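Section 5: illustrative case.
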């Protein structure tokens, strides 16, 4: 364990809203050991920005980690040459150029179908299942190549894996649900692969399989894509809509084009980060600042806290679509920078937000007669419901 100062947290309070605790940590103990999480947390933006690049010490290679055990070894849990080799194959399939040339038009198409279904509803709906989950899932089906599955399956598998890799208490039911999801994804890959072999396309499954990458790694990277590419866009879509509906002045600026919808997306993800944390394993004894880390101990890079760092963002607790968000760490800050960042910006900033407000217009508002909107989570965070009327 590091010799960082110890800070206790109340797990329930931290899940409900981690931001006040993170603000206290930045002010009093920016690198601190939290017994309830069994890890040393880095909470300042510059510390994370520096350490994430020092892969010789802050390693993503976690052989005993839950992700490796449950989902197989993927590119996000490898370092150096091994990581570079897999990313070299994976990234071109979702690069900014490929998103513009291939995926943007498909995102727009699936948005039309999802909006048609939404508009057919009787003037009220919960946007988490009926818009955000559906749109994120349909987009992910196209990008992964698993076009035969339902978006609801993808969403359930993603949630089961996310719960499984955060299951530090070792709950057997959570573990079994995760393993069942992993097996279902393997079956879906087996079902889809023959057609993709016969007619290769731009999808991640086809591109990785055609590259000669071992199938074990192809499968693990498809599972990674489902676990990391469904909930986050879903939470960003639903969360940004809620943020605009509770800040009418900001919505007006987006509707008039004074600010871009992409700026809304960037500011929302800075304000409430869909991925709040990423783990690392210390590979060698190391002193950073006044803290000495021990080999094999667990470190959490708190991206959510970096995005509220007062040195970079004034009044970080405020949602402000006019602010400069360029210093954000929403997608990470090192060799593992999110491979899906361009796809997410296109899906949420260019399609999901403008298309919804264009279609449902000025009449869209929160349904005050329904349950209040509730947010949850610190490692992954988003709204659990966004009930609206139009
Ligand atoms: C709002 C949406 C998203 C957010 C906020 C997000 C955030 C992140 C973050 C913070 C990381 C870095 C983790 C680390 O440093 O350990 C990451 C990695 C990754 N993300 Fe995303 N992500 C999003 C959407 C997506 C989508 C849609 C895809 C797939 C199409 C995707 C695929 C990946 C992959 C493959 C990695 C690992 C990259 C590597 O290890 O080289 N993400 N994401």
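Designed sequence:
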């Amino acid at each position: 364990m590091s010799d960082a100062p110890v800070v206790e947290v109340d797990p329930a309070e931290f899940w409900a809203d981690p931001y006040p605790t993170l603000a206290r940590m930045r002010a009093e103990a920016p690198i601190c050991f939290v017994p309830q999480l069994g890890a040393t947390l880095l909470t300042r933006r510059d510390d994370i920005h520096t350490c994430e690049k020092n892969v010789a010490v802050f390693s993503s290679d976690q052989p005993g980690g839950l992700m490796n055990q449950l989902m197989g070894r993927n590119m996000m849990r490898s370092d150096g040459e091994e990581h570079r080799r897999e990313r070299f194959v994976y990234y071109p399939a979702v690069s900014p150029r490929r998103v513009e040339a291939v995926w943007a038009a498909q995102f727009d198409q699936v948005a039309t179908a999802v909006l048609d279904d939404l508009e057919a509803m009787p003037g009220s709906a919960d946007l988490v299942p009926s818009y955000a989950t559906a749109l994120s899932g349909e987009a992910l089906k196209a990008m992964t190549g698993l076009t035969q599955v339902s978006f609801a399956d993808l969403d359930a598998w993603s949630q089961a894996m996310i719960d499984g890799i955060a299951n530090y208490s070792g709950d057997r039911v959570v573990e079994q649900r995760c393993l069942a999801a992993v097996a279902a994804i393997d079956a879906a890959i087996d079902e889809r692969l023959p057609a993709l072999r016969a007619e290769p396309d731009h999808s991640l499954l086809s591109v990785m399989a055609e590259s000669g990458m071992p199938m074990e790694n192809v499968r693990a990277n498809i599972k990674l894509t489902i676990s990391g590419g469904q909930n986050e866009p879903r939470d960003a879509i639903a969360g940004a809509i809620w943020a605009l509906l509770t800040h009418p002045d900001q919505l007006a600026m987006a509707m008039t084009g004074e600010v871009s919808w992409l700026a809304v997306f960037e500011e929302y993800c800075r304000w409430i980060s869909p991925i709040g944390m990423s783990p690392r394993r210390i590979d060698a004894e190391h002193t950073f600042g006044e803290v000495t880390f021990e080999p094999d101990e667990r470190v959490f890079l708190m991206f959510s806290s970096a995005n509220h760092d007062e040195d970079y963002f004034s009044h970080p607790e405020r949602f402000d679509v006019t602010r400069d968000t360029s210093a954000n760490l929403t997608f990470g800050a090192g060799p593992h920078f999110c491979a899906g960042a361009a796809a997410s910006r296109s899906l949420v900033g260019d399609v999901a937000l403008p298309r919804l407000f264009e279609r449902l217009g000025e009449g869209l508002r929160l349904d005050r007669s329904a349950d209040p909107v509730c947010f949850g989570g610190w490692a992954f965070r988003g709204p659990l419901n966004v009930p609206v009327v139009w």
